[in-house]
Target: AB hydrolase-1 domain-containing protein
Amino acid sequence: FYITKPSSLELQSSDQMMLLVVAALGLVAFYVYKSIKPPPPIPLPENVSEISPRIKLNDGRHLAYRELGFPKDEAKNKIIILHGFASSKLVDLKITKEMIEEHKIYFLLFDRAGYGESDPYPSRTLKTDTYDIEELADKLQIGPKFHVLGMSLGAYPVYGCLKYIPHRLSGATLVVPILNFWWSCLPLNLSMSAFKKLPIPNQLTLGVAHYFPWLLYWWMTQKWFAPFSQNPRETMTERDIELADKYTKHAYIKESALRQGEYVSMQRDIIAGYENWEFDPTELSNPFSDDNKGSVHIWCALEDKQISHEVLLYLCDKLPWITLHEVPEAGHLIIHEKQHFEDIIKAACS
Model:
């Protein structure tokens, strides 16, 4: 038998093929890397301090804020408002001047990290959001205790306040708060039943945020599947749609909220809300069990298509020190209804 050596031409052809394969794999890897790597935040304008007052945190970041209502040095009730998903400190509070004066209410609103004029925090979590709230209150010297009020996705830091800084609270309110379907405290049949009521695109997006947060940017920007339901009637009541249509006239609020890019604001919000937490809500202790006066409230809209009434009932059954308010014939956007918002504030001030 004769063993023929490959010719130099064959070797050259083989080398070229190998180079083409390596180059192709390199291009694919580069494309994948570019697809999953979020872009850097859009820089804020140089005159950002003229757009909104900001305070500097100990880690060098800035938080933009807005103060409303009674002077803080004279206020009887000091309420920090946590805005919802794709919103900002510019959220419209449906409350009369007379009510503010009657209850001597001071409101502090701020852009959570990455929103509006607040600097982003690449590793933002429930815990970092909680300590941002405490540091903001200290920098603005609003006093040793304050009430926190969070709405929708913006309610998750309220759970953090109850866990990490309960000694700073005079009260807490969660309005149609998000449900992390992966809380281990929830019975599997209850959490899965609530999860499956969401539109399939929403289920997939929350699943990506929980299990593969490093893929969320790619998932939110890919063109094959919509990351959220495109049919508003799957997630909103007719009244919600009316309210949403009304607030599209204030589109500049959303544009301002997302001015640094959707990843550092909205997408980081989803990750922080639906990642694995260090605790479950049913592990929380009543911060007002002794002589410390205060109360915790959850507001549930019975027609809400996004938040499960049954899960909130379960949580409040496990935590009987939380007052559950069930609002009939109301949807997810009850915070924008004047009567409902005033009822929420009255309960917070009681």
The first strand starts at residue 54 and ends at 56. Strands lie at 54-56, 62-69, 77-82, 105-110, 146-151, 169-175, 295-301, 322-327. The chain has a mean pLDDT of 90. The chain is about 40% helix and 15% strand.
